[in-house]
Amino acid sequence: MSAKILIIEDERKIAIGLQNYLEGVGYSTLTASDGQIGLDMARREQPDLILLDLMLPVVDGFTVCRTLRAESSVPIIMLTARVEEVDSLAGLELGADDYITKPFSPRQVVARIKAVLRRVNGELEPPMILRKNGIEIDLQRRTVMIEQTPITSLTPTEFDLLVTLVRSAGRPLTRSQLLDAVQGEEGEAYDRTVDAHIKNVRRKIEPNPSVPRYIVTVFGIGYKFAE
Question: 32: closest CA among 48, 146, 153, 14?
Answer without folding.
Answer: 14
